[in-house]
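Aggregate trends can hide what the representation actually does to any particular protein. This step matters because it turns folding into a mapping between discrete strings. For completeness, the protein is quoted in full, as a sequence line and a line of structure tokens:
=====
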Amino acid sequence: MHLPQQAEYDESQLRLLGRLRDAGVSERVRSAMMEVPRDLFVPIGMKRRAWIDESLPIGNGQTISQPSLVGRMIDLLETRSEHTVLDIGTGSGYQAAILSLLVRTVVSVERIPSLCQQAADRLSGLGYRNVQVFDAGNELGRPELAPFDGIIVGAASPDVPEVLVAQLAVGGRLVVPVGSREEQQLAIVERTESGIKEKVVDWVRFVPLIGEGAWKA
């Protein structure tokens, strides 16, 4: 009785894998993304759309990002297995789960308490033991646990937040959408021995990043 639905589900996964490949997402990141059951990170009513390459609402005015964009941003971090990465905007926990398969430790922060608790419970229940989830409050990042080898931000800031740049290790990278509330570009900031390097790529659209150094609530 469940076979047709399962066949459709598998086909959806394969279509998404093709979309990730077409978007230029690396094989390493694609493999991690296909290990994470995205259908368990979306609301029950959205499960049939979980493997489509689109953003989906998760409540509280927040979304789970489009998979190809998640993959692209993670690739821009240039993660390694020994890294510790800061994930800002836990949301459903989907991005943190993917990162957990690619790095040693993920520190994830979420400012909406209900989403924070749900994501923490979900990630723990699914066995992602190397993810720590914290209530962000109005602070950007987790300075007491810095420096980080990578910082990835799932919301848009008007400028590159200096408070996050300060939490980067030497050789670390920050990937953050920067621009207006309507549209942004991905900024890539790298801390080197000689200073800070910055460039912008891809136009994107994200919900606003709320906190000191970004947008006001």
User: Anything to note?
Assistant: The domain at 3-204 is CATH 3.40.50.150 (Rossmann fold). Helices lie at 3-22, 27-35, 67-77, 94-100, 113-125, 162-165.
